Amino acid sequence: MANNVFVYCEIEEGKVVDVSIELLSRGKRLAGELKVGLDAVIIGTELNGIEDQVFPYGTDHLFLADGPELYPYQTLPHAAIITKLLEETKPQVALFGATSVGRDLAPRIASALKCGLTADCTSLEIGDHEEKKEGKVYRNLLYQIRPAFGGNIIATIINPETRPQMATVREGVMKKEIFSPSFRGKVIRLDLSKYVGESDFVVKIIDRHLESRKADIKNAQIIVSGGYGVGSRENFKLLFELAGVLGGEVGGSRAAVDAGYIDHERQIGQTGITVRPKLYVACGISGAVQHRAGMDQSAMIISINKDRNAPINKIADYAIIGDVAEVLLKMIKFYKKNSK
Amino acid sequence: IKDKYPGTIITILTMGPVRAADIIREGLYRGADNGYLITDRKFAGSDTLATSYAISLAIKKLMPVDVILCGRQAIDGDTAQVGPQVAEKLKIPQVTYAENILEIANGKIKIKRRLERGIEHVESPLPLLVTVHASAADCRARNAKLLMKYKHAETWTELQHATEDYIKLHGDRPYLHIAEWTVNDLQPDENMLGLSGSPTKVKKVINVVFTAKEARVLSDTDTSVETLMIDLITNHTIG
Ligand SMILES: Cc1cc2nc3c(=O)[nH]c(=O)nc-3n(C[C@H](O)[C@H](O)[C@H](O)COP(=O)(O)OP(=O)(O)OC[C@H]3O[C@@H](n4cnc5c(N)ncnc54)[C@H](O)[C@@H]3O)c2cc1C
Ligand SMILES: Nc1ncnc2c1ncn2[C@@H]1O[C@H](COP(=O)(O)O)[C@@H](O)[C@H]1O
């Protein structure tokens, strides 16, 4: 198994989460290019049958660490198991979801293994690297590609010397791709007593509530925001619908809040929240300076406005000239039609 | 913490060029007790692994420490890696995404942490490392009295350019001194520092050209909206 590609699969309520499936899909392609196998680990409890969820994505070896004390996720036992497993199986690449679990776990493991880790990659590729000074050529490295410094540059990061080459990737960045519906790999159950000890359980979870998420606009990657031009609370439902299908949140201008179209906790701007999402869709917002102060750092801005000369269009990347409701309906329709 | 548990000593530790002493001063203005700056050319070019190594050595020097607080992610690297890596090097537990410290008593700490979809209360023995979530309480404002008191707090290097009066002032008021640690103070394995201790290398950097913010003006026809959505899906902005 040495030199394989390895994926940490996160589970939630008995289901392997989307980002892990996406990583298996991408991992399988990388493994194919490198002509090696794909390994994965699942840590949790009552894992019988869970292999059916990952084999179609081409997992050659699935390691299971199965025990009641291993769910829900805790840093120390999971880190101990994976660290030892990586030492034993020596993969060349190890991938983790950039979730609250993956981002807690991966750096701890990288530190223990003294290897390089790149957070939030937006693309993973295989390629060579020449160290001109030393005249050394490294073949088939993992290119870990990610935006840096507020998204103004894209950096390609490599780990020439250390293994595994570790990376985290956010949900939705890679595509799910079934390798073969009938593919079967091998299940390997780990003997837990060899991997974790009592000292790994010093942190106790007292309780845990999963909530249907409250609006978390500040951290949303995609924000669909509406202004006075949306026209009514009723029309704002279209914004919620678009945000829903894109996995984003809804915000508003002060004029929209004052008109009662949207709740105050969603106001964006100088006297509201400051946001810097990947995508900000400004619907019927004129773009007053107080509003722009809260959103002009967004990586991409799309404006929908019937007035071609609205100030918002000066800072937008795309300006769609038209009626909010009509354009939103089209965006929803064409997103659904063209997404995976 | 200090308000709740009087007598707690808050130390600020940061690593960076000498101007990073500004951060320590900001902390002092807000009630911290003292500060240390790790600074040395040999640390330059450190990635998160080498950074966490240097910071963990400094913390070892400061031990015993009960709670190590750090940010979730830095504004420059934005990796959220340094905290957990320091915890691993110190072989202590970590609690990430903390929103609130509920209680510290009898060698244990209770913390509320934010998960992707919910919250969790955990209890950990001390010492431990905590990374703070953005939803935590805002930091307290500068205190005017402390601002006066520490306005002239400086590190040794900064003092090199100071006038004699200033040096005398520091002599009279030792609390104005911000300690500076270099490689010699930490006695690290130098192979684990800076560029040589950093397994990650930047192979290349591409500038994303923003077309001087000239918006692309689109009509509201089916074709133009559909083309835009396909572009956004293809370049992973959405979907
Ligand atoms: C001290 C101070 C603090 C402030 N803080 C904030 C703040 O934090 N956040 C904030 O947002 N504002 C703030 N404001 C208010 C700000 O100055 C603007 O008044 C406000 O942002 C305007 O909101 P708007 O763009 O939704 O409305 P408008 O300026 O009325 O713009 C509506 C836009 O919708 C377009 N439109 C109308 N109908 C349609 C349609 N059917 N289809 C498409 N487009 C249409 C119009 O062309 C127009 O561009 C603050 C003001 C002050 C003085
Ligand atoms: N040079 C440094 N000096 C002190 N703390 C640091 C340094 N680099 C990172 N940290 C801490 O680690 C956190 C996460 O940083 P990062 O992993 O770079 O996103 C920061 O919020 C800081 O608390």
Q: Residue share in helices of chain B?
A: 25-40%
Name the average pLDDT of chain B.
84
Q: How many E-type strands of chain A?
A: 18
Span between N and C termini of chain A?
32 Å
Please state the overall shape of chain A, judged from the principal axes of the Cα atoms.
globular
* Hetero compounds: flavin-adenine dinucleotide, adenosine monophosphate
- Rounded radius of gyration of chain B (Å): 23 Å
**Count of helices of chain B?**
8
What kind of sheet is the major sheet of chain B? 5 strands, mixed
Main interface: chain pair and counts: A-B, 85 and 70 residues
Strand count of chain B: 11
Largest sheet of chain A: 7 strands, parallel
Oligomer: heterodimer
Strand order in the largest sheet of chain A:
7-11-6-1-4-5-12
The assigned structural class of chain B equals alpha/beta
Mean pLDDT of chain A: 91
Order of helices and strands of chain B: EHEHEHEEEEHEHHEHEEH
Structural class of chain A: alpha/beta
| Beta-strand percentage range of chain A | 25-35%
Could you give a short description of this structure?
The complex is a heterodimer of chains A (340) and B (239). Chain A has 340 residues and is α/β, with parallel strands linked by helices.
Describe the structure.
The complex is a heterodimer of chains A (about 350) and B (about 240). With about 350 residues, chain A is α/β, with parallel strands linked by helices. Helices cover about 25% and strands about 30% of the residues of chain A. Chain A contains nine helices and 18 strands. In chain A, strands 7-11-6-1-4-5-12 form a seven-stranded parallel beta sheet, sandwiched between helices. The longest helix of chain A has 17 residues, at about 20-35. Chain A starts with a strand and ends with a helix. The relative contact order of chain A is 0.11. The mean pLDDT of chain A is about 90. In chain B, helix 1 (about 20-30) links the parallel strand 1 and strand 2 (about 35-40). Chain B is globular and about 75 Å long. In chain B, helix 2 (about 50-60) packs across helix 3. The model of chain B has no long low-confidence stretch (mean pLDDT about 85). Chain B is an alpha/beta fold and about 240 residues long. The chains are: A alpha/beta (about 350), B alpha/beta (about 240). Chains A and B meet through helix 3, helix 4, strand 7, strand 9 and strand 10 of A and helix 2, helix 3, strand 4, strand 5 and strand 6 of B. Strand 10 (about 155-160) of chain A pairs antiparallel with strand 10 of chain B.
